[in-house]
Every structure is written in structure tokens, then in C-alpha cells.
Amino acid sequence: MTISERSSHQQLPWSAGRWTHAPVSAVAEGEDLVVTAAENSDAWRLTSYGFIHDSEHALLDSFPVGAAVEVTFTAALPEQFDQAGVFVRIDAQRWVKAGLERSDGRLQLGAVVTQGQSDWSVAPADEWSGQRVTVRVSRTGGALIVRAGLAGQDRQFVRVTPLDPEQVAEAGPYLCAPTRAGLSVRFHSWHLTEADTALH
Fold it and tell me: Which parts form a coiled-coil structure per UniProt (predicted)?
């Protein structure tokens, strides 16, 4: 289904997606979905660390050109490498994860772009800890544009990265807990809307 066949700003039900890897639990509480990650869940390919991790919990639906995916969640990520945000997947070797991750004692806003091997860019976002955060990924032309911000406020630019418009992609909320058991993330909403029309 294309974005033109949906409403221009549609809240997707949690039942719309399919998990790349099933979490320990995913429990609806009102409009929210509270998801508990498995220990050692992660997504990474090779760079610097030398390993391949393909065990993230990503709830994905179709992501057509001209659409944007918005996910809002509470940024309660207290332990090393706890992470949550938006996952975009083409296949096992080509994907993007964008959002928040606890790294070296700080909450970091960033993205991992993977084309066979992963890269990673971050910037500190400690002031967002415990707050509702919205991550938005737009697919327009041959690019993905990532923005994020506190829910209800302006979103700041995070990343632009290429994505072939001919590729079939899926996207939706995700979380990982590479170093521990017990991470639970409360997701508040998942929207499909029109993509950003400009980079700036």
C-alpha cells in the first residue's frame, strides 16, 4: 500500500507490524505498547567490533517512498547500550537504526547506517532522559532524512543517508539491550505520514 492509499497522517496499530525477532514480551497498556527486550539483542555488522549481531526487536510495516515513519517513546534507557527508536530494513545487510542509546554513561542521539558494514554517529542528549521523544525518518527521492525531538516540540536534524527509491523497505519502532536483561521501553505511538519535502 502506498502513502497515497493511506490517510496523510495515520496512527498505525501495534498489530500492523511483524517482529524481526520476537521480544521477551510486548504488552498493550491503553494506547501504549510496553516491550521487554531479550538480553544480548542488538543490530550491528562488523565495523571496529568485528562481530555481526542480527537480533534486534523491530516491529516493521511497509515504508514506501514519499512516507515518513514517526515513533514516540519514553527515553528510559539507563544501562550501557540500551537503545530504542526507528528501524528501517531492506535486508540483513542493509538497514538503518535511528534514535537514542546509552553509551559511556551518556544518553546519545544518533544513527547507525549499514551497507554491508555499520557506521555510527552520535551526539549527547542527556536532557532527553526520561522524556517522551519522537524519532522521525522520512523517505523521499533517494534519501532517508532522520529527525528527532521531544514530543510536541520541533525536531532537530540528525542524519541524511542514501536509499535507492527502487528498494522495498520496511520501518517501525525498535529496541535492543546488548548487555543485559530487563530493559522495557514504553512506546506511545507509531505514525505513517507524508515525508519531509526539504532537508532544511
Answer: none
pLDDT at 5: 42
Kindly report the pTM of this predicted structure: 0.94
| Of 8, 165, 137, 4, the residue nearest 69 (C-alpha) | 137
Position 74, amino acid: T
DSSP letter string, the chain: --GGGS-SEEEPPGGG-EESS--SEEEEETTEEEEEPPTT--EEESTTT--EEE--EEEEEE--TTEEEEEEEE----STT-EEEEEEEEETTEEEEEEEEEETTEEEEEEEEEESEEEEEEEE-GGGTTSEEEEEEEEETTEEEEEEEETTSPPEEEEEEE--TTS--EEEEEEE-TT-S--EEEEEEEEEEEPPS---
Which of 92, 184, 100, 197 lies closest to 139, judged by CA?
Answer: 197
Tell me: pLDDT of 109 over 70. yes
Cell of 125: 542528549
